[in-house]
Each structure stands twice: as C-alpha cells, then as structure tokens.
TrEMBL record:
GO terms for molecular function: acyl-CoA hydrolase activity. Pfam families: 4HBT. This is Thioesterase superfamily protein. The keyword Cell wall biogenesis/degradation does not apply. It comes from Ruegeria meonggei. InterPro entries: HotDog_dom_sf (IPR029069), PAAI_dom (IPR003736), Thioestr_dom (IPR006683). Residues 49-124 form the Thioesterase domain. Keywords: Hydrolase. The keyword Ribonucleoprotein does not apply. Signal peptide: none annotated. The lineage of its organism: Bacteria, Pseudomonadati, Pseudomonadota, Alphaproteobacteria, Rhodobacterales.
Length: 147
C-alpha cells in the first residue's frame, strides 16, 4: 500500500485537527513504512534537571505512529491509541530537540502497530523506545471519514 498523503498534506491535516499542538511536531521524513518526526523542545517540555519530560516523549511517539497511519490510510482522525509500552533508557538532553524514528509494523483493517525509537538530536543512542497499538474505525464509517 502506498502513501495516501504526502508530507505537506499530512502537515496541513495535522494542523487542522490539532491546532493546539501542531507547532510542536515536524515531519522530517516520510515513506510507506517509516516516518521521522521532530519535537521542537521548549520549556514546557522540560522537567527539573534539564531533561525532556516523559509525557512529552510519549506525545512524540504517539503522534509519530498516528501520523504514519494518516499518511497510509488517509483521514482517520478518530483512530485511537489502545496500547503503549514505553521504555526509558537514558536521560534526554533538554537543550536539544527530540527525534523519533517510527517503523510501521502492522497496518490492518482494525489495528495498526508502530515501533518508535526516540533520540536527543545529535546523539545516535536512543533515549526511549515505544511500541504503540491503534484501533482504527471501520472503513466506510462516519468516524473513518472525520476531518
């Protein structure tokens, strides 16, 4: 299956459905099986000690998997996260953006699974790893066409 949305179309759609946070995330690379996304780290993403907070890293991983689902399936605004396993491996550098590299492992009719490695920009050592599962609305339903 090929991409239904290119990088620009995906960014426009994300801005439309998530106006409150779309400026936090930038799609850097996109193909049929993977996506690279950046979290533009600001003070709001930091916790004491100068590190990026866990919720901010989860948000990046979650948005990353959601974005590749959108790029492959089209406008699926009501696709929802049903599971996440996240391992935090080392302290991220709060002075740098976070980079997420996501591989789409499965894209079925009702479920999608993605694996995400998160890095501090400039480092080749992952700071966290997440596997997320999404439930997709039935094809042809009003939920599948939302947005």
């Amino acid at each position: 299956m090929s991409l239904v949305m290119n990088q620009e179309q995906l960014a426009d759609y994300m801005e439309n459905i998530f106006p409150q946070v779309h400026k936090d995330f930038v799609v850097e690379e996109l193909n049929e099986t993977s996506i690279v996304m950046r979290l533009l780290v600001r003070d709001a993403h930091l916790r004491p000690g100068g590190t990026v907070s866990g919720p901010s890293m989860f948000g990046l991983a979650d948005v990353c998997v959601y974005a590749i689902i959108l790029a492959r399936k089209g406008r699926q605004a009501l696709a929802v996260t049903t599971g996440c396993s996240m391992d935090f491996m080392r302290k991220p550098d709060g002075g740098n953006d976070m980079i997420a590299r996501c591989t789409l492992l499965k894209l079925g009719r009702s479920l999608a699974v993605g694996d995400v490695l998160l890095y501090s920009e400039g480092s080749d050592k992952p700071v966290a790893r997440a596997t997320l599962t999404y439930s997709l609305p039935p094809e042809g339903s009003a939920a599948a066409e939302f947005g």
